[in-house]
Amino acid sequence: MTPSGPDSAQKSLTNGYLFKELWKVVSPYKGKFVLSICFLLLAVPLGQFAIFLTRDVTNQALNTTSLTIQQRWDTVISIIVLQFCFWLASTLLSTWREVLEWYVSMRATLDLRLRYYRHLHSLPMSFLSQSGAGAHLYRATADMVSLFRVGNRVETSTPAGQMPPESKEVQSSYYYSNDVDPYDPGVMGIITRSMPLFVETLYAMGWGAVLLYLIDPMLSLFLVLYIVPFSLVSYFAFNRVRVAAFAFKEGVENESKVLRDSIAGLRTMKAFGRTTLQLKKYFLAAGQARRSGVGMYGEMVRTQNLLQQFMRWAFTTVVYVYLARQIILGEATIGDWVATALLIEAAQMPLQNFVQLTQLIKMQLVPIRRIFSTLSVEPTLVDRADAVVLGEISGNLEFKELTFGYREDEPIIHELSLQVKPGEYLGIVGPSGAGKSSLVNLALRLYGPDSGQVLVDGHDLQTVQLKSYLSQVASVPQSTYLYAGTIAENVFFGNPDATEEDLQRVLDESGASAFLKHHADGVDTMISESAPISGGERQRIGIARALIRDPKILFLDEATASLDPATEDAILETIQRIRGGRTILTIAHRLKAVTQCDRIIVLDEGRIVQEGTHDQLLAVDGLYRKLWEQQWEIGKVRGGVHD
Fold it and tell me: How many other C-beta atoms are found inside a 10 Å radius of the C-beta of residue 228?
């Protein structure tokens, strides 16, 4: 059955639960994290005391009453030295604090990524198929990286750069051009950077108010009265920018999709003469993204820049007018003016950052929820505590009263029972949707049955240690996936402990040695999923990858379906050559691939409707003969692809 989807899981995760889970990931490093907070609590007052001493430096420099020039100069130097000591201590503490925050962020993010990666491998294929590989790739990379920006770039990032797109596709390069950092510590920055910023804001505002009070109590009152309206205005202004930023994000996503389709489908586009049409489509999408970006920037200028800057100007003007009056009345000094100006600036920046932080955290709850919605899905591909460790298996495979479906109440396989003897070469055929590949998926324990059992040597697959079973089986899909690396590395993927002699043996058995002669680098030839390699070569690498495991059971899931007739014949000869007592289950759409099987079963709507050898099945009027005749007629029309 398909587990509950990611969308439904996201809705059930409260904000409190999400932050609790984030803290659990950080908690192994809480000692260093708490130490960074302590450094912060020392650095802020030391830095503001250094600013406060500017008042004394200025006043002493302007003091012309009772001190000589030398005395005034000596006093100024002494205060500057003391001020430098405060500044140096504050800077060192701030540096150590940032180093600790980065360390904790990077370690915690790595832990979360590894946890996410391990968890994906324990989930059923139904869940992964439902949400898509691209979604999980995005969650493991962009979602985690983008969340760090909450604390790390709240001062400089635009809201558009902060919002991870909902699209599963890779976004256009300039979308993150101002925000990507190769040293981003990732998702845990929302705790390790935003929490210290929250403390710093409160602490800086508090110390700023205290020091302003020492200069003049009214200045402290002005600061307190300024905080509330500034916070409210900034809050609503940021909401307007956020709406515009989402529109920009959607525009960029659409542009990225059009660009991706244009590049991925370039050959088809040229073949159909649609280059001009696709260019026009891209220009329209790019234009929409540009207009959305201009609109977002305009909203930022109108709301954030103009409004916030006006409020800051109004506040400082009130303070300066008041101080000017006090200086004229002889109740304040020029030093008071200088120190107040610096303290106000030091207090306002954390306040502005804090207001943005509260909004950014709201936006980042979306990717956080995406990550933990996946982590909250109960794993199914995990071993039981009492799992049986299999020894060497004989290859006996049994499907016992098996019922299975990808969706609830929609079974694809209905109470199917099938015995596969050790060393038997079994063909499985039937119309599309009959349940052929589902049988292999169940036998590989990629899914679990709704009812019934899959037994290997009499052991229920749900009760055995998965590793002890999978180490003795292998599969070759319709199109072998090629990992970026050499041909040798792709084959060794099947068994990293294999030797060079094993490699050469399976290359010979699979017939891959023949085409390797045409590559100058031989087994060291670099390949990848997009490499210009033929279907036959790809499948031979897949067969070699399977053989290097020396499997007792080999599954061939339409391994020749995408090949031309000549290449298919060569691959089928290879399969006959490598039987060697192995149990082989081959799924085929083209019946030619199963003519040499010891036994063939015919599936229709999840049930076995026929069983026998190729000749036996052709001799009776049934589904197998009907399928064979259909393919024979198609083969004649196409020039005779059947023997």
Answer: 9
Q: Selecting from 1.20.1560.10, 3.30.428.10, 3.30.1490.480, 1.20.120.1630, what CATH number does the domain 6-375 have?
A: 1.20.1560.10
Q: Which carries the bigger pLDDT value, residue 158 or residue 447? A: 447
Domains of the chain, by residue range, sit at 6-375, 479-550
Q: Name the E strands within 270-310.
A: none
CA quadruple 527, 530, 533, 534: dihedral positive or negative? positive
Joined together, the tokens standing for residue 151 give: 């604390």
Distance CA 231, CA 239 (A): 12
What pLDDT does residue 597 have? 93
**Which residues have CB under 8 Å from 464's CB, separation 6+?**
387, 388, 389, 390, 456
Contact present, 1 and 84 (Cβ < 8 Å): no
Question: Do residues 248 and 287 make contact, with C-beta atoms less than 8 angstroms apart?
Answer: no
β-pairing verdict for 599-604 and 607-612:
antiparallel
pTM of the complete model beyond 0.70: no
Interatomic CA distance for residues 188 and 190, integer angstroms: 5
Q: What's the one-letter identity of residue 273?
A: G
Query: The tokens of 417 are what?
Result: 């029972």
Q: Please give the span between the terminal C-alpha atoms of the chain, in angstroms, as a whole number.
A: 41
Residue 427: Cβ within 10 Å count:
24
Of the listed ranges 24-33, 35-44, 56-65, 343-352, the least confidently predicted one is 56-65
Helices (H) and strands (E) in the chain, counts: 24, 12
| CA angle, 73 then 76 then 82, to 5° | 140
Give dist(CA 229, CA 355) in Å, integer: 12
Structure tokens, 270: 């040229």
Do 479-550 and 6-375 fall under one CATH topology?
Answer: no
Out of 2-11, 305-314, 605-614, 631-640, least confident range: 2-11
CATH code matching the domain that covers 479-550, chosen among 3.40.630.10, 3.40.50.300, 3.30.70.100, 3.10.180.10: 3.40.50.300
